[in-house]
């Protein structure tokens, strides 16, 4: 019994040390403001995708995907000088997120609301995984940030949006 309790304590202590190390790595980002901006850009474009789906503007979703792909550059730049293991984890997760955004664009060609909604939900899930790599104050969960054109006080998207 004593060995079991001792083993459990060692296991719990080891896990706590690992979680603390991971949190410390993420908390000591070299460019936290850039990370926050990058995550907000992606969340804003996601918000635009969600609005386009709600309005049945399926033909606009490939354009939104293009903006999403371009917006990911801000996050890549933000982690460019981070330690290699952390940067690799972000890059791998971002790659999955970009693939999910592309899936929204590809699926939009069907004009099937259920399929596009499922693809958008998968994108949101992938974005949450990406956000989880960073400290909570920097995160921008999907659907919580206005699209870029609304962040500047506009009430309607610019022409051709």
Description:
This protein is an all-alpha fold. It folds into two domains: 1-30; 31-161, Oxygen-evolving enhancer protein 3 (PsbQ), four-helix up-down bundle (Four Helix Bundle (Hemerythrin (Met), subunit A)), CATH 1.20.120. It is 69% helix and 0% strand. The chain has five helices and no strands. It has helices at residues 2-27, 32-54, 61-78, 84-108, 113-131. Helix 2 (32-54) packs antiparallel against helix 3 (61-78) and helix 4 (84-108) packs antiparallel against helix 5 (113-131). The radius of gyration is 19 Å and the shape is globular. The protein starts with a helix and ends in a 30-residue tail after the last helix. The model has no long low-confidence stretch (mean pLDDT 85).
Give a short synopsis of this structure.
By secondary structure, the chain is an all-alpha fold. It is built from five helices and no strands. The protein is globular, with a radius of gyration of 19 Å.
Q: How many domains is the backbone divided into? A: 2
What is the typical, i.e. mean, pLDDT? 85
CATH class of the largest domain: Mainly Alpha
Number of helices: 5
Tell me the CATH topology of the largest domain. Answer: Four Helix Bundle (Hemerythrin (Met), subunit A)
Largest sheet: none
Chain-wise SSE layout:
Blueprint: H1 2-27, H2 32-54, H3 61-78, H4 84-108, H5 113-131
Short descriptors:
single chain; mainly alpha; Four Helix Bundle (Hemerythrin (Met), subunit A); 2 domains; 5 helices
């Amino acid at each position: 019994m004593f060995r079991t309790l001792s083993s459990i304590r060692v296991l719990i202590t080891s896990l706590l040390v690992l979680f603390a190390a991971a949190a410390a790595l993420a908390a000591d980002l070299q460019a936290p403001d850039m990370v926050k901006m990058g995550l907000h850009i992606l969340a804003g474009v996601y918000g635009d995708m969600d609005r386009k789906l709600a309005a049945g503007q399926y033909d606009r979703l490939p354009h939104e995907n293009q903006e999403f792909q371009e917006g990911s550059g801000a996050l890549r730049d933000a982690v460019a000088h981070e330690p290699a293991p952390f940067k690799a984890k972000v890059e791998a997760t971002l790659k999955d997120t970009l693939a999910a955004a592309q899936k929204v664009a590809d699926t939009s060609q069907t004009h099937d609301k259920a399929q596009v909604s499922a693809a958008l939900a998968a994108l949101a899930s992938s974005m949450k995984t990406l956000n989880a790599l960073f400290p909570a104050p920097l995160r921008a969960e999907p659907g919580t940030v206005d699209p870029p054109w609304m962040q500047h006080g506009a009430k309607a998207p610019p022409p051709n949006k």
